[in-house]
Amino acid sequence: MTRDQILERYRHLRAISTDHHSGALKFLSRQALLEHAKRLGLATGGMLVAESEAEMTLVFDLALYTAKERRSRALDRYARATPLPPGSDAARMLEAMRHARFSVWRIKQRHETAGLIITDVLREAEVWLVDEQLEASAPEDLSFAGRICEPDRFAMSCGVVVPIYRELIEEVALDMLAWRRGDPEHVAQDPHFAIAIYRAAIDSGIMSNVADE
Question: In terms of residue numbers, what domain contains 50?
Answer without folding.
Answer: 3-209
